[in-house]
Amino acid sequence: MPAPRIMDPYKDKSSHYHHRRHLDFQSVEELPDAYEWGPLESHGGPVGADQGVPIVDLKGPNARELIGSACKSWGAFQVINHGVPQRFLEEVESAGRRLFSLPLHQKLKAARAPDGVTGYGPARISSFFPKLLWSEGFTIFGSPEDHARQLWPQDYQNFCEIIEEYDRDMKRLAGRLMWLVLGSLGIAKDDVEWAGPTGDFNDTCSAALQLNSYPKCPNPGRAMGLAAHTDSTLLTILYQNNTTGLQVHRDGLGWVMVPPVPGALVVNIGDLLHILSNGLYPSVLHRAVVNRTHHRLSVAYLFGPPQSVRISPLERLVDPDHPALYRPISWTEYLSTKAKHFNKALSSVRLCGPPVDRTVSSIVEVGS
């Protein structure tokens, strides 16, 4: 898979932090100044179960319609009965815990290179903010074997087998979810040429896995696990363990927690699907907050189109009364735009209408 070329625009961003001293989160008793964001804007108060991010049963008869409604109003939803066994999700979580519980000096053997995009290191969006993020990550394209050998020279195969099986499961699920989302817009398989000969996206699209660790934090009210952003994907499928932390932003409600549901997976609409749907299904602004007493782990499957395809609003969604709002752009080109403009990237590729700025100003005014 030639995915590293897709992420080339982020190489400079990744190397920006390479020279900084890595923090051993397990030994910290007080929040260092470099990680202190100041008081965080809290979520918008209690939200009832029937008012939060929808939970969709993929075996339900109206799954497509419910997903369409969730995409339009939230840009995110959770799915159950998705076909990935709970026991395997727990194996994936265990593999992630095994990785992040290693001593820092051991994890640094698989550190992301200054000009690289895979391996252990801080979130790639870190360089957009003056304060550091209370998290650590591990990025995987294709096989994780090279980095796994560095972490466990004599015992790397189990980790690789779990990750590779999870990647296959997520690829199948991503294709299924894409057609549920597109079907809710009235899009047929003939409308998407790059879906591949079988129409399931499996042989055409690109993807990456991102393992995220959010250690226990001595002052979670003034630290940020992952700052507010939208994903530069079509879809992101997220597994989160049983510790809360993921929040999505919705106008009128502010920050809303997405509570872990046993066996459920969270699906986020990314910027490229925002473009593909001509803005009908907006990408969701989200962030991760941290916890004083519990370690949180998540695994994100970042699903995007083929490298050679230029994404633009689907023809079926464009007419004289609904002009195309965005110019055609490839995933590689969009990542370059995102690496430059961050949450204003959608505005920079918009053709008409009001600009799209997915920034919540109060969360980037560090130290306010």
Please give a structural write-up.
This protein is globular. The chain has a domain at about 50-190 and about 205-275 and about 280-305: Jelly Rolls (Sandwich), CATH 2.60.120.330. The protein has an eight-stranded mixed sheet with strand order 1-2-10-7-12-5-4-3. The protein is an alpha+beta fold. The protein contains eleven helices and 14 strands. It starts with a helix and ends with a helix. Helix 3 crosses helix 7 (about 155-185) and helix 4 (about 85-100) crosses helix 7.
Listing every helix as H and every strand as E from the N terminus to the C terminus, the arrangement reads: HHEHEHHEEHHEEEEEEHEEEEHHH
List how many beta strands DSSP finds. Answer: 14
Biggest β-sheet: count, sense, barrel?
A: 8 strands, mixed
The proportion of strand residues reads 15-25%
| Overall average residue pLDDT | 88
Q: Going by CATH, what is the homologous superfamily of the domain at 51-188 and 204-274 and 281-306? A: B-lactam Antibiotic, Isopenicillin N Synthase, Chain
Strands of the biggest beta sheet: in what spatial order? 1-2-10-7-12-5-4-3
The CATH topology of the domain at 51-188 and 204-274 and 281-306 is: Jelly Rolls
Q: How would you sum up the global shape?
A: globular
Helices, by number, come to 11
Distance between the termini: 44 Å
Low-confidence stretches: 12-19, 361-368
Tell me the structural class: alpha+beta
Please identify, by name, the CATH architecture of the domain at 51-188 and 204-274 and 281-306: Sandwich
> Using only CA atoms, what is the Rg?
20 Å
- Portion of residues within helices: 25-40%
CATH class of the domain at 51-188 and 204-274 and 281-306: Mainly Beta
Pathway: Hormone biosynthesis; Plant hormone biosynthesis; gibberellin biosynthesis
Domain Fe2OG dioxygenase: 205-305
Protein name: gibberellin 3beta-dioxygenase
InterPro entries: DIOX_N, IPNS-like_FE2OG_OXY, IPNS-like_sf, Iron_ascorbate_oxido_reductase, Oxoglu/Fe-dep_dioxygenase_dom
